[in-house]
Write a structure and sequence with these properties.
With 259 residues, this protein is α/β, with parallel strands linked by helices. Helices cover 32% and strands 30% of the residues. The strands form three sheets. The chain has a six-stranded mixed beta sheet, with helices on both faces.
Length: 259
């Protein structure tokens, strides 16, 4: 299973540093949550990890190999990426949307899927409680139902690196918990899981590590109980936090606007 290493990654857009000298190791078998306020660089970092942004300064390696040198097909099979605001413009059936995750493995959607591809699609649908959506046109589904199918598409790829950008943003609390449990299960089977979140409570409960970013820089990196300390996140978010402990898990609560 794969390990991602980021060294001295810097990204500038005009005069603004979107990412500035970022150093992070992402381990196989762990869920790493990237948190931070809007505009802090979370999505840009994830796009770099997915190989969707051209590296100008710094290095990203997968198991010691430069990400930029990995052939596109191999990269698509190994790195499953769920963007934050994924859009679908055709009235596909649910199962056909999920089957797009098998394209890197040679699936041809103009003909019946190979047994291995069909099995991967069925497993992915079942994992997101989406089997009942398989034969429904996606343009008739709610935003939350589409989000579940898009996650299933990502799971169907079967990559050993899974990158998810705000996967719970459109989901109700129950499904949000389900999604985080799915990501934990992926890590349990050895996948390197990196997820961006706004919900610090979910990050504290489900992540092995939390990376706090602010202004394109890493403000904290460690276990949730350390990275989400009030003295760090108060200054990063400009909010006064209070914390409660539930079943041994520290839960940060945004309590007041800082002066």
């Amino acid at each position: 299973m794969s390990k991602l290493v980021v060294r001295a990654l810097t990204c500038r857009r005009g005069s603004r540093a979107v990412l500035a000298d970022v150093h992070i190791d992402f381990a196989a078998g762990e869920v790493t949550a990237i948190v931070g306020p809007n505009g802090s660089g979370k999505t840009t970092l994830l796009r770099y990890l997915a190989g969707l942004e051209k590296q100008v300064s710094g290095e990203i390696e997968v198991d010691g190999r430069a990400l930029a040198t990995i052939e596109r097909g191999e990269k698509a099979r190994r790195i499953a990426y769920l963007p934050q605001s994924a859009s679908v413009y055709w009235p596909l059936l649910g199962r056909d949307l999920v089957a797009l995750g098998r394209l890197p493995h040679g699936a041809d959607l103009t003909r019946p899927l190979a047994p291995s591809d069909a099995a991967a699609v069925a497993r992915a649908l079942a994992r997101v409680s989406g089997t009942v959506l398989a034969d429904r046109p996606i343009d008739l589904l709610s935003q939350g139902e589409r989000a579940r199918l898009l996650l299933a598409r990502t799971l169907a790829t079967g990559g050993d690196i899974l990158l998810a950008d705000e996967p719970v943003v459109s989901l109700d609390p129950g499904y949000a918990l389900d999604v985080m449990a799915i990501l934990r299960a992926e890590a349990a089977r050895g996948v390197c899981v990196v997820v961006t979140l706004h919900d610090l409570g979910l990050a504290a409960r489900f992540a092995d590590r939390v990376v706090v970013v602010a202004g394109g820089r890493v403000a904290a990196d460690g276990p949730p109980s350390e990275a989400l300390r009030a003295e760090t996140i108060d200054s990063v978010y400009g909010v006064g936090f209070r914390s409660v402990t539930i079943e041994g898990v520290l839960q940060p609560l945004a309590w007041s606007r800082s002066a």
